[in-house]
Amino acid sequence: MSTKNEHHSVPLGVLLKREMENEKTEKPDIIYGQANQSKKGEDFTLLKTECQRVLGDGVTTFSVFALFDGHNGSAAAIYSKENLLNNILGAIPSDLSRDEWIAALPRALVSGFVKTDKDFQEKAQTSGTTVTFAIVDGWVITVASVGDSRCILESAEGVVYYLSADHRLECNEEERERITASGGEVGRLNAGGGAEIGPLRCWPGGLCLSRSIGDMDIGEFIVPVPYVKQVKVC
C-alpha cells in the first residue's frame, strides 16, 4: 500500500524502453562517439552511418562500427579497415529483401574476414590485427570478432551481454585445445633455467591470440574465422 505522495523510482533504461514500445519505432536513432589512446600507431576505428544496402535509394541504410587493434606493425589493421566492409558486402547477393539480407550477414561476415586475411597475406607482410566488427540494421546487431577486442551490449534492463569472443589463449580453453589438436604448441615464454614468464602463447610465433587477420609468420594455427553473434534488441 502506498500514499498519494509516495514516489517510486524507475530506471531510465526501462522508461526509454516503454516509450519506444509505445511509439513502435522501426529504426532507432544512433548516437555514437569514440575515444582512444594509440601508443604505437597500430590501432584504428571505422565508423560509418547511413550505409546503403541498395546503392542510391537512400532508404535501406545500416551502420558499421569496427575496431582494429594491430600488432607487429599497422599494415594489417589499415588493410582490414579499408577492405573488410567491401569484402563482406561482396559476399551478399544484391537482390535480397531486408530480412533475407540480415539473415545472410553472419555467413557473409565469415567470408569477408577470410577473404580479407587471404588477400592481405598475399602481400607478404607479417603484421596482424584483431577485428571487432559490428553492423547495426534497425534493432538488429550483428557482430563478428577475432582477437580480444570486446563488444558489450547493455540492455534497457541493465543486463550486460558479451557479443564478442575473447581469443586470448590465456583465458580460452577451447582455443588452446584446437591449436594443440592441430599440432601446435601452447606455452609461456621460456626465460631460461626452467622459468616461464608472460601469458600463454601459440608456438611457433609466440602470439598470445588464437585468431586474427594477418600474422602470416605465425603459421596455420592462427585462423581468421570470426566468432559471430546476432541479436535483436527490441
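[next item in queue]
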Amino acid sequence: MDDTAGWWGIDARIWQAVLAGLFVAAGWLVNGWQNRREEAARRAERLRDTHRALYAEIGAYLGNLGSLEALEAARAAMVARMRAEPDFVPFLAREEHGHLYRAIVADIAVLPRSSIDTVVAFYTQLGVIAALVEDMRGPGYAALSTERRIAIYEDLARSKMAAWLYGREALDLIDIYARHGAQAARDRQDALRAARVNSPEDAAPDGPSRGGGSA
C-alpha cells in the first residue's frame, strides 16, 4: 500500500497543501479583521480630535458674539445711532475666523452625517460675514445713502444671528455625539430639521437679503 495515501485515499501531500492553504487564509482573515479594527479606531480618534477642536473654535466665536439678545440689542443701538447721525459710518474690524476649519476642510469627510451639514453651514456663514464686512469697510459703503447703509448693516446683523444659531446647533450635535453616540446625534438632527419645517420663523436666517452685492 502506498504510504503517502492519507484520509479517504487522498495523497498526504495534498492534505498538507490544503491545510497550509487554510492556515494562510485564516491568517489573511485575522489580519484583515485586525487592520479594519485598527483603522476604525484611528478614524474614531481623528473624529474625536476634530470634534473637540471644532467645538473649541465654534464656542470661542459664539462667546465673542454673546447671545441673540445681545446681538439684537447691538443692532438696534447701532441703527438708532445711524438714523440720529446720518453721516455716521460704523467702523468694522476685519473678520478673521475659521482657521482650524480651513486646516481640516480637506479631511472634512471624517465628520459624521449628524454634524457635517451644520458645521459646514456655520463656516459658510462666517464666509458671508467676512465678505460683507470687507465690502462695508470700503469707500463705496460710506458713499451710500443713510437708509442704504442701515439696510446693509442690518443684513450683517442678521448674518451674525444666523451664525450664532448654526454654531449653537453644531455645538449641541457635537456634544450629543460625544455623550450619547451617533444615533442620538442623528435623532437630534432630525428633530431640529423637523422643527425648521414646522416653525420656519425659528429657523436660522439666511445671509444678506437686502444688501444686494458689494457696497
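[queue empty]
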